[in-house]
Amino acid sequence: MRKPAISVSMPELKGILGRYLEAPGLSYAVKIVGHPGVGKSDAVRQTAREKNFLFIDTRLAFKENIDLGGYPVPDHAAGRMIYYRPGFIPPEEVPEGFDGILWFLDEANRAHPTVIQTLFTIITEKVCGEHRLSPRTFIVLAGNLGEEDETQVTDFDDSALDGRLAIFHLKPDAGSWLAWAFREGLHPSVLRYVAAFPDRLWDERNILPNPRAWHQASQALALSCGLAGESELHQELCREPDGQAAKMLKALLGPAAGAEFVDEIVAPRALTASQVLAGDAGKLALLRDDKIPAEDVLWAFSGVVAELRALAAETGGDLKEDGLRALCNALAFAACIRADQRASFFLELARRCGLLSRIPEALARMDDRCAAEDLRNFFSGILSEP
Question: For residues 92 and 94, what is the distance between their CA atoms, to the nearest angstrom?
Answer without folding.
Answer: 7
